[in-house]
């Protein structure tokens, strides 16, 4: 610790073997069946294995899991935890309580209400009943928003189902697949999720949305819901929320913003302009477990009027809900959610906010954006790579191809094979990145996080360069 604060500066120190390749600090990568054999998981019929057996198996879990704390983990839209996060998870496990009714979780219920309201306020939701709920991940938050939208705009569906309506959901062509999963789960049908074309920056085109809504109405369907995105999964794009909101208001559609990834830029004075108009949304998903590095899972569904959630989701369950308070201030939080049993995940954000403060979040986010911009710059300047992202990128993903001499093959399948092969070989060098499909085949997608160092970005590109030359 430094004074009364933990020193949590990441250190770029990757152990290497005699051959110059990294030691097993990131992951001991095995095929599933080989891992089954190595773990030797056996659940005893009789007596348990006690402390020694438990400790032995815990060691195996750690050995064969991905070390997301390592600098080389640049694979997904989340990364390592922090000491504060470990404390939050520990407290939740020690309390082992359920966030469904105030009676059994008084402190955690207050923490969720206060934290969600403060979080909503940061995004411009300032109504007297502004607030939100925590859900088990961004997909759960998005699905809850679909249910709330349907039950609010068409109240009869709460008791009678969809009836004669063929509801249509609209989402960006680069939107997250959870919208289709929500339609599938809610009985709306995945084919009734219509993809809205995007512009050259990966942003939803409002006029194209308008045309699709008119098309749906002309076909006798019921346009219901628009999912705009703050930080798309691959390119990190932010949709034009003000213009999309105007279209939604014109036709009476629910506007949801999926800010699972990009929402936390609201804490950065340099980046929050990308969220212009987000306060016009009817609901907003934000996942602090992504950009803010709090423990997985921590997701919020926020709104300007929490009474709408209550009206959409409440059911009479006298064996559980005993409140006689007739006010709009609901304290039995399961009366707002689709779930009954929930963990108090809002504690994870609350403790991080207490420790780091909004100013600390801003520093973390600005650092991550600086590193992402640095990576984009060195990719752009390198003769053997072709940058797909803009320079600087809109969010923390940097996407690019390996293209010797700057010449990218027109053979998309060949490009995909090259990309996938190089990604696989990177693991032995202490890096994990992902890849995503593009017009000319799959490209690298590197996800920077708030603990990534510029030296890590330099080392990654050097590793890819060396792997590329080995394959020629």
- Overall pLDDT confidence: 93
Give start-end ranges of low-pLDDT stretches: 6-22
Strand content: 5-15%
**Count of beta strands:** 11
So, CATH architecture of the largest domain? 3-Layer(aba) Sandwich
Which secondary-structure class do the elements indicate? alpha/beta
- Radius of gyration, in Å, reads 24 Å
Number of helices: 14
Run of helices and strands: HHHHEHHEHEHEHEEHEHHEEHEEH
Could you say which overall geometry the principal axes of the C-alpha atoms support?
globular
- Give the neighbour order of strands across the main sheet: 1-7-6-5-4-2-3
- Main pleated-sheet profile: 7 strands, mixed
Cofactor: pyridoxal 5'-phosphate
Keywords: Decarboxylase, Lyase, Pyridoxal phosphate
InterPro entries: PyrdxlP-dep_de-COase, PyrdxlP-dep_Trfase, PyrdxlP-dep_Trfase_major
Protein name: Glutamate decarboxylase
């Amino acid at each position: 610790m430094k004074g009364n604060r933990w020193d949590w500066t990441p250190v770029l120190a990757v152990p290497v073997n005699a051959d110059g390749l990294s030691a097993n600090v990131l992951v001991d990568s095995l095929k599933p069946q080989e891992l089954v054999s190595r773990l030797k998981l056996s659940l005893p019929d009789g007596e348990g294995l006690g402390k020694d057996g438990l400790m032995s198996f815990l060691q195996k879990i750690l050995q064969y899991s991905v070390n997301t704390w390592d600098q080389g983990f640049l694979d997904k839209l989340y990364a390592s935890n922090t000491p504060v996060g470990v404390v939050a998870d520990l407290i939740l496990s020690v309390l082992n309580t359920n966030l469904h009714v105030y009676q059994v979780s008084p402190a955690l219920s207050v923490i969720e209400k206060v934290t969600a309201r403060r979080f909503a306020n940061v995004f411009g939701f300032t109504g007297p009943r502004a607030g939100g709920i925590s859900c088990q991940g961004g997909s759960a938050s998005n699905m809850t928003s679909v249910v709330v939208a349907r039950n609010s705009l068409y109240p009869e569906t709460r008791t009678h189902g969809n009836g004669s309506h063929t509801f249509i959901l609209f989402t960006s062509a680069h939107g997250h697949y959870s919208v289709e999963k929500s339609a599938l789960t809610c009985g709306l049908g995945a084919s009734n999720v219509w993809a809205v074309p995007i512009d050259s920056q990966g942003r939803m085109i409002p006029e194209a949305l308008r045309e699709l809504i008119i098309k749906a109405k002309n076909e006798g369907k019921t346009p219901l819901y628009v999912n705009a995105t703050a930080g798309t999964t691959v390119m990190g794009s932010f949709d034009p929320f003000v213009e999309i909101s105007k279209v939604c208001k014109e036709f009476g559609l629910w506007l949801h913003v999926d800010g699972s990834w990009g929402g936390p830029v609201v804490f950065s004075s340099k980046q929050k302009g990308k969220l212009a108009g987000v306060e016009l949304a009817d609901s907003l998903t934000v996942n602090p477990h992504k950009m803010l590095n709090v423990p997985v899972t921590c997701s919020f569904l926020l709104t300007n009027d929490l009474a709408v959630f209550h009206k959409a989701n409440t059911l009479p369950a006298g064996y559980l809900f005993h409140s006689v308070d007739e006010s709009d201030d609901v304290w039995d939080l399961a009366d707002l959610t689709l779930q009954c049993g929930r963990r108090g995940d809002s504690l994870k954000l609350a403790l991080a906010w207490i420790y780091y403060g909004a100013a600390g979040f801003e520093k973390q986010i600005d650092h991550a954006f600086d590193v992402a911009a640095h990576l984009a710059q060195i990719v752009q300047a390198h003769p053997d790579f072709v940058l797909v992202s803009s320079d600087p990128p809109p969010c923390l993903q940097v996407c690019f191809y390996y293209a010797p001499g700057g010449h990218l093959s027109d053979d998309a399948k060949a490009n995909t094979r090259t990309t996938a092969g190089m990604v696989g070989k990177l693991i032995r060098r202490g890096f994990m990145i992902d890849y995503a499909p593009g017009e000319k085949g799959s490209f690298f997608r590197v996800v920077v996080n708030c603990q990534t160092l510029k030296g890590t970005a330099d080392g990654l590109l050097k590793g890819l360069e060396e792997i590329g030359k080995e394959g020629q």
